[in-house]
UniProtKB/TrEMBL annotation:
Keyword list, A-Z: DNA-binding, Metal-binding, Zinc, Zinc-finger
Keyword Metal-binding annotated: yes
Name used for this protein in its record: THAP-type domain-containing protein
Record keyword Cell wall biogenesis/degradation present: no
Annotated THAP-type domain residues: 1-87
Organism encoding this protein: Loxostege sticticalis
SMART domains per record: THAP
Top-level division of the source organism's lineage: Eukaryota
Length: 111
């Protein structure tokens, strides 16, 4: 049963059965593209030494919509140049920075 290797991603076969727009994609076999994917995955997981298994997959929610297309048989595929993106991590970072700024503004009034 495929599941997404991104930390905190809850997508796996049973949870996406009703979501027709989620698919799972194996890591590329090409060395350069595989390294690009591994860099993103390791950064997202915060594990510099993470290694994929033969069955490791990334769900389509971690790719730009422009990188995903449908074949004539309605099968979701990735463009050869597609690399996962860290959307949620980026959003969390922006939120955290905003909270830190707010805390500094609130805290600075006490000195």
């Amino acid at each position: 049963m495929p599941s997404c290797v991104f930390r905190s991603c809850t997508n796996y076969t049973a949870t996406v059965r009703d979501k027709k727009n989620v698919s799972f994609h194996s890591l590329p076999k090409d060395g350069l593209m595989k390294e690009k994917w591994l860099k993103v995955i390791r950064t997202q997981r915060r594990e510099d030494d993470w290694m994929p298994s033969t069955y490791s997959t990334v769900c389509s929610e971690h790719f730009l919509t422009s990188d995903v297309y449908l074949t004539k048989k309605n099968i979701r595929r990735l463009k050869r140049t597609a690399v996962p993106v860290i959307k949620k991590m980026w959003e969390e970072e922006i939120t955290r920075q905003g909270q830190e700024s707010k805390e500094k503004r609130n805290f600075s009034g006490y000195w």
